[in-house]
Amino acid sequence: MLTISQVTEQTGLTAYTLRYYEQIGVLQSPNRKPGGARVYSESDVTYIQCLVHLKKLGLSLEEITEFTRDGCVMDKIKQGEDPAHFIPTLSKRTEILSKYLVELEARRQELDRIIAMTREKLAGYHELSQDF
């Protein structure tokens, strides 16, 4: 079991953010020690890291809440639950990720153009500086 400070080190989120995610329902309340301190399992940390990745993709907290509504579907299916039960969830997740994939591809193309321009400028500057 991990403390909130250990989880913040592993995930890069602040304790405030973890508590906020818990408050708005993005993150389920973790178990607590008798004194009330939160304790997290390794699966909690894996789930939180998933939230971090979704946030980095650009998903809003509302989209993340929708995306994670049924929890870790892949784990549930691996544990024997009927995949057909999750078709609406899988469809919604596919829709959300597809939208962001298109945006990421567009950003990558823009970055590729910027990198190419930067390389051209650097080559030109190196060439000019060798003339002196």
UniProtKB/TrEMBL annotation:
The keyword DNA-binding applies. The keyword DNA-binding applies. It comes from the Bacteria. It holds the Pfam family MerR_1. Residues 1-70 form the HTH merR-type domain. PANTHER family: REDOX-CYCLING DRUG-SENSING TRANSCRIPTIONAL ACTIVATOR SOXR, TRANSCRIPTIONAL REGULATOR, MERR FAMILY. This is MerR family transcriptional regulator.
